[in-house]
Amino acid sequence: MDSSITRAAFSQAVADAAGRLAAAAWSSVVEAGEGAGTDHWMREHGGAFLREVLGAAWTARAERLGVTGACGCGGGYQFRQHRPLQIHTVLAGRDVAVRVVYGQCDRCRAGVRPLVQDLGVDAEGFTPALRELGVLASVVEPYEAASSELLERFAGVRVSTEKLQALVHGVAPAAAALEPPAPPPAPDEAPLCVAIDGGMVFVDGRWQEVKLACVFDATGGATPDARPTLLNKQVVAVRGTPEALAERLWPQVAPLLAEERLAVVLGDGAPWIWHLAAEVFPHRVEVLDWYHADEHVSAVARTLYGDGTPKAAEWRQTQLDRLWADGVDQVIEGLRFLGAHQRAAAKRDAVEALQRYLTTNRERMRYQTFRAAGYRIGSGAVESAVSHVVQQRMKRVGMRWRAAGADAMLTLRAVYRSTGAWDRLWRGNRAA
Hints:
There is one protein chain. The protein is of the alpha+beta class and 432 residues long. Helix 9 packs antiparallel against helix 10 (310-324). The protein has 3 domains: 7-126, no CATH class; 187-289 and 378-431, no CATH class; 291-364, no CATH class. Strands 7-6-5-8-9 form a 5-stranded mixed β-sheet, sandwiched between helices. Strands 1-2-3-4 form a 4-stranded antiparallel β-sheet. The protein is built from 16 helices and 9 strands.
C-alpha cells in the first residue's frame, strides 16, 4: 500500500486492500472450502489487512506531524529523511510497517521521530496497548505460558519472556504509587472491613512471608457461611515487615476513614496483625477470624479424643457453640479444668496452648455481639486474596523468584485483584 497524506488516496488504498482481502476470502473460503480452518485463515489474513491499513494511517499521520519544533537544548528540529519502522501492536501478526519522518536538532544533533512520541511507542516499538496486554498476560500466567499460550496462541502476537519481565518491572513502580480511587459512600454507614493475613513465597533461595491486607465494604453475610457482597475491594501486598505493609496500606484506607468511621479488623491471631491495626486504625474493632478459632479448637479435639471420633466431634461442637454465643470465658474456664486433669504431656500442652490463645484474644471473640452489630467475623476475603495474589501465580511447582521480580509481581497482582485499579493504572500510563 502506498503511503499518502491525502484522505482520498488513503481511502482508495484501503478500498484496494479490502478488495484484495475479499477476493482472497472468496477463493480460499467459498471456492476452495477451507472448512475448519476458516476462522484461523480469517484471523491471519484479516490481521494482515488491518496492519496494512494501520501502517498507511500511521504513515500519513507521521507526514502530518512533520518535525518542526524546538529542541530542549534551544535549537530547532529540521527534517532529515524518511525511515522505515516496525511498530509492534496487538493485531494478529503484531508488526505494522510504517514510514516515519525523522528529524534532527540543528544544534545538539539529537534525533526525533514525532510519530513515535505521538503513539507512546517504547524504545523497542511496542505500543501502549501491547505493553498492557503483555503485562496482563504475565500477571495471569507464568512468563513462558504468557508468551507462548496467551499471547502467541490466543492473540497471535509474539513477545519474548525477557520482554515480558522487563514490562512487569517497568510498570511496577507506577502500580506501587497508584493513587486510591475517590472514596465512594459507605453502604448504610457500615464499618470498613479490613482483613489481614500472610503467605509464603520462595525468594532468593528461602521462604519469605508476604503480608497482605484486603480492604472492602460488605453488604450481607454477617455469619461465616453467608457470602457477603464485597464492594470497592482494595488489595495491598508486600514482602517485608508489618511496617512496610502499614506504609503501603495507609494511603488506600485514609480516604475511607473520614468522620471517625469504624474499621472492623479481622486476623488470625498473629500479634503483628493487631499491632499494625493499632497503628493504622485508631477507631476499630478487632475480630479473631472465626475459621481460625475453629481450627484451633478442632486441633485440640483431635489431640484429646482422636481424629474423626464421635467424642472429638461432640467436644468440638460444644466449644464452638459456646464461642458462637459469646461464651469464650466459659470455654477458657473449661480448658483450665480440663488441662489440670490430663496425664499425657502432649494433651496437657495442647489444652494449655488453646487456653492461652483464647485468653489472649478474648475480646476479639465476642461473636454474638459482633454479629448483632452486623460485623464480619470471617476473613474469607483475605484468604481468597492470598490465594489469588500469591498462590495462583507465585507458588507453582518449581517456581523461584528474585526479590525485584517478586516485589513487582506482588504489586501488580494486588492491583489486578483490586476493584477498578487495573484500569486506573493503565489510564494513568496512557495519559503519561
